[in-house]
Design goal:
It comes from Oopsacas minuta. One of its GO terms (molecular function) is zinc ion binding. Helices cover about 25% and strands about 20% of the residues. The strands form two sheets. A nine-stranded antiparallel sheet has the order 3-4-6-5-10-11-9-8-7, sandwiched between helices. Strands 1-2-12 form a three-stranded mixed sheet, with no helix packed on it. By secondary structure, the chain is of the alpha+beta class.
């Protein structure tokens, strides 16, 4: 029997944060594809994204649905989502009528945050000082919304393949009275690891990655960018501070600046991979807030997660369906192969 090779033979890997297994099937990467392909484009329509453009409701001075007008903003701009998934007021559900039919209260606030007045300027195309302004606004939003909410989820859906409804570069911020399911699992697993080892799971894991180095995409003074050993999405990455940090609000000024620098490097590599504006979903996970600000959350380590959908080209994406929805996550490209592709990809944007 042939000797096992993780780049050739199927196997499963354990996601320590989520407590789930991932099937790695490297032998499938070259299978024929005649299914759905995505349209490609280098950038958004610049004419529609200029300040005052009537077709872009996120542009400075634009009129949004419902008659509200955007500020004539010069850098970031935050407003209450016109169609929120969570409201701060409203009646709570009654007690369950049956133990198998369980409900719970859900309160919160949803906001939209535009990164820049130019709608054609993605984070990958922004200068580091402008990315730093975005990070500083993330910190302000977490500080404000985290006072009264147990969880503040900052996330960006970039590109049509990821369901983005407006190409103007922006993110969303959903603050909730409860800790959502995925962060709750992460909290549980980090807490259990800390109880057993008296150290942070992600910092111990980071030490292993720094030792083996085969999944390191970028490293700077304060941050490390890796393709996680258990990555589900083809070019999934994680950003982790080198020191123990609970939340975005705990980052020092130097860490925020170098965070902007490593985000710039990663997103340029993403765009350069297939010479396209690379679609992804990203978000920040840190220690919970609200009532948890007064509790011991030492088990937590701040990190950002990037989930890009493209697999083999700018037009072929990974579909999480079938086996992934009914059994467990599965990937074709190994995390090590994905990391090597990203490592070898230049960090200077191909359009510069």
């Amino acid at each position: 029997m042939a000797e096992f090779d993780s780049n050739k033979h199927q196997h499963t890997r354990y996601n320590l944060l989520q407590g789930q297994w991932v099937l790695v099937s490297a032998q499938r990467i070259n299978r024929p594809w005649t299914g759905q392909t995505e349209p490609t484009k280098e950038s958004n329509n610049k004419q529609d994204s200029l300040p005052g453009a009537t077709s872009n409701y996120l542009a400075p001075g634009a009129l949004r649905v419902g008659g509200k007008k955007n500020d004539d903003y010069k850098n970031t701009f935050v407003f209450e989502n016109d169609f929120p998934a969570l409201l701060s007021t409203g009646p709570d559900p009654p007690p369950p009528v049956h133990p198998l039919l369980v409900t719970a209260p859900a309160k919160g606030t949803c906001r939209v945050m535009c990164f820049h007045p130019r709608g054609d300027l993605t984070l990958a195309r922004m200068d580091v000082p402008d990315i730093l302004i975005v990070i500083e606004e993330w910190v302000r939003q977490l500080h404000e919304l985290g006072k009264d909410n147990a969880w503040v989820q900052i996330f960006e859906n970039k590109g049509e393949p990821m369901g983005c409804s407006n190409p103007h570069p922006h993110c969303q911020i959903w603050a909730s009275s409860f800790i959502p399911d995925l962060p709750s699992r992460s909290d549980k697993n980090q807490r259990e690891y800390f109880k057993q080892h008296d150290s942070q799971l992600l910092l111990d894991y980071l030490a292993v990655e720094l030792e083996y180095r085969e999944r390191l995409v970028a490293v700077n003074a304060h941050w490390v960018c890796i393709v996680p050993f258990w990555a589900c999405w083809p070019y999934e990455t994680m950003l982790i501070p080198k020191r123990h940090v609970l939340r975005l609000t705990d980052l020092t000024p130097d860490e925020r600046l170098s965070g902007a620098e490593i985000i710039k490097i990663l997103l340029c590599k993403y765009d350069n991979l297939f010479h396209t504006s690379f679609p992804y979903c990203m978000g920040w996970h840190g220690a919970p807030t609200g009532p948890y600000l007064e509790t011991d959350c030492s088990h937590w380590q701040l990190h950002a997660l990037y989930y890009p959908c493209l697999l083999r080209s700018a037009s072929i994406k990974k579909h999480m369906v079938g086996y992934e929805m009914l059994a467990q996550p599965q990937r074709d490209l190994t995390p090590e192969a994905a990391a090597l592709r990203l490592i070898e990809t230049p960090s200077i944007h191909y359009l510069d």
